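Handoff note, outgoing to incoming analyst
You'll be picking up this chain. Sequence as last confirmed:
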Amino acid sequence: VQLVESGGGLVQPGGSLRLSCAASGFTFSDYNMNWFRQAPGKAREWVAGIRADGSSAIYADSVKGRFTISRDNAKNTVYLQMNGLKPEDTAVYLCEARRLIRNYWGQGTQVTVSS
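Most recent structure output, in case you need it:
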């Protein structure tokens, strides 16, 4: 099983990034997918989630209206489009695959928002 995040980097406040999480080794379309983030010295924070069939998505209040989660089950990939980035969005972003009590994590990709 692998989850590999990509797309992170350094961006100025107000900028945009699109993160990707490519999955392999399990039936991706059976799993709900989540994005989390973890800033230095802080607890891991849930950011957004999407159902296995992509029919609905939910967001943390801190990112609602700025971030959009989506998935392509044909490509076994989940995305996080991040617009209007703020310095407080700086963190390592990780994807999680979850089905019932089973879950898998990626290693994360660093997002730094700074001028």
